[in-house]
Amino acid sequence: MEQNTAPYREHNRTSLTKEKLKQGFLDNLYFIQGKFPTLASRNDYYLALAYTIRDRMLHRWISTATNYYESGARTVCYLSAEFLMGPHLGNNLVNMGIFGMVKEVVEELGLNFEELLAQEEEPGLGNGGLGRLAACFIDSLATLEIPALGYGIRYEFGIFEQTIVDGWQMEKTDKWLRNGNPWEVPRPEWAQEVRLGGHTEQYTDENGRLRVRWVPAKIVLGIPYDTPILGYRTNTANTLRLWKSEAPESFDFEVFNRGDYYGAVDQKVTSENISKVLYPNDEQLSGKQLRLEQQYFFVSCSLRDMLRVLAIQNIPLSRFHEKFAVQLNDTHPAIAVAELMRLLLDEYLVDWDDAWEITQRTFAYTNHTLLPEALEQWPLPLFASVLPRHLEIIFEINSRFLDEVRIKFLGDEARLARLSLINEGGERYVRMAHLACVGSHAINGVAELHSELLKQDVLKDFYELWPEKFRNKTNGVTPRRWMILSNPSLASLVSDRIGNGWVRDLEQLRQLEPMADDADFRKEWWDVKRANKVAFAQYIFKRTGILVDPESMFDFQVKRIHEYKRQHLNVLHIISLYRRLKENPNLEVPPRTFLFGGKAAPGYHTAKRMIKLITSVGEVINRDPDIRDRIKVVFVPNFNVTTGQKIYPAADLSEQISTAGKEASGTGNMKFSMNGALTIGTLDGANVEIREEVGAENFFLFGLTADEVYALRASGYHPYDYYNTNPHLKDVIDLLRGGSFSRGDADLFRGLTDGLLHHDPYLLFADFQSYVDCQEEVSRAYLDRDHWTRMSILNAVRSGKFSSDRSIRQYCEDIWKAEPVPITLLGQNEEPTGFIQ
Ligand SMILES: *Cc1c(COP(=O)(O)O)cnc(C)c1O
């Protein structure tokens, strides 16, 4: 890549020589932090380093904005209520190609580089897979040089920090901004006003046309905070634009002038509440007014921001959809359909038909869930009180839409009711998924199986209406963060053999397939895994005081805690293995460490009890002198991107055991496989495709298929029968019911066991025996180290499909019609021509 031009080359703030990096670092420590080395805290050093790197990103950022402005290129806008970014510093160093050099610089200054990296508080602005997908996607968009913006919310408090007290989850607020955020730049000059509440009025305009005016009850300001997102070794630096809510000055003053100082302050406080906190529910709608306000807030700011860009680029409104491809990451931003219509109709006076064409050609919708309880719907009265004008527009969209359905399916009243944007069964709701489907030209699922199930089940009626809208875009993850940054030893081992083309083109890893038969390579591969496990064992000891043996198999299940993900099925197997080992100490099973991690939504009591179940079983087993050197159970607290970066590289086995037909895709499964873990899993989500890629012989498959699950439910599922006929299962459940893992308290897990015996909505009992048998196969396989390592290598080198670069290429080709715009860096005499993005 081209470097900075001459005058920049020698500058303390831009040069990439070690000397200038050092000088820049000390300058920033002095001029930004106001500290000498003798007084500086670790955080001062971290910030000085972060600013030193940011300084070196700005030239690319400004050049990128200028290039995009001049090319007028089509821009992808990724709208997501969550961006689970993880720490920026290490990733930026990797993407700039200066990780090793900066490490040396920091060490030559006598500082601990790892400590400085660890000092960064991660921006945890997401719950799990969905938010992390958005983060991987903006990384890939920048690497592929696609003009793109991520639009979201700058939550003051991200996902809570989890601690474990007496085996239970405790939540602490995530004060990620307390030490300052060096990566963001506020852009108050591009603030947007957002209206909320109030009522609508009809009036006749000067041309005698009937119009609608929205008289809001309050107005809040959205302030954009921009973070540069670097591509991997390209000049591209795209933007993540997150909106913070504030009270508008003028509004405060009005109340203030009436002498109501406290009222004015109240106004400020309520306005700031909108972007205050991320809702910590994964796969569960909250139905709270503030959540709807958050969604509308960031969507309205983002669309107005696009209109601002359109205006300064002199592009006519009728070409909005040619300039912008807007992707809706789940239904959280689906209100955008009604908001763009409102902006066009009420503020730009566009005709309905033209506005609707622009809207449909602008949006595309990604569905993320098969769980009915996660499909967002808003009670009509609540919706009307927050967005009265949008409700009118949704009624009009619905009425025109249902007219179309009536013609196509004459006389099919039941179908009309199923398709309607309004759920009329009892209490009335606005169905956000239906709004997204109607207002988009493309609808996609996130794995092959998921996309099929959408067509057969969740969105069947829409598929029958518009089959041409439906697509699949299998998820992916970025190999920059999830391999190079988090598993540098594996990355070097790979690059030593095949160069580093694989980082941008992950399919190249297949060149290593023959190496699976090379004993020396297998030894190196095993040693890398082993070293990662040693490092993780040290981390676990520091965090939990539990000693784990790196010789044992590291078996991980890390993901949000949820019944459908079935962490409790994992526990049932552990108890059954424990029982067998107690009965037969000569059983030949390799030592295994069962590790769990993940957060439970604070209001999801069953999930919180599942954590208590894991920790309680761990307490008994880890204390049992007969067993504790053979199996261990550990709960890793506060699973997030930072801990994930240590976990995936240290895993031998990845547990992907959701009930078939419930997990839309999963992306944790991909990160594990890429890092050489083998998977034990059901045919669910992307597991199906992972198994296809790595080969059935390198994947531990168990359980019912989605079709079998469906058939079993239809024919009447009776979990009690499994309990009665399977003595192993009965043993396990009886131990739990008798209080063996709750110090005799037979009530502690009563709710869980009764729930399984009488309902078992996720069919743990139906899959139990198959899972236990499969785990025995896993244990046998681990005893053959050579064979296991061979399988591990094949898993990693055949995971090329699961790079988010592949996903983004497919979105670009098939949905967004977006092309790369390579960035030429501005020369020293060239003034930037404009800042648009
Ligand atoms: C990848 C990732 C997830 C998603 O994990 P799944 O196993 O796909 O549910 C959730 N949280 C974090 C922090 C992740 O990095």
Quick structural summary:
This protein has 837 residues and is of the alpha/beta class. The chain contains 34 helices and 25 strands.
Describe this structure in words.
By secondary structure, the chain is α/β, with parallel strands linked by helices. The protein has three domains: 94 residues, no CATH class; 366 residues, Rossmann fold (3-Layer(aba) Sandwich); 324 residues, Rossmann fold, CATH 3.40.50. The chain has 34 helices and 25 strands. The strands form six sheets. Strands 1, 4, 7, 8, 11, 12, 13, 14, 18 and 19 form a ten-stranded mixed sheet that branches. It is globular and about 90 Å long. It starts with 5 loop residues before the first helix and ends in a 21-residue tail after the last helix. The N terminus and C terminus are likely disordered. Pyridoxal-5'-phosphate (PLP) binds next to helix 7, helix 25 and helix 26.
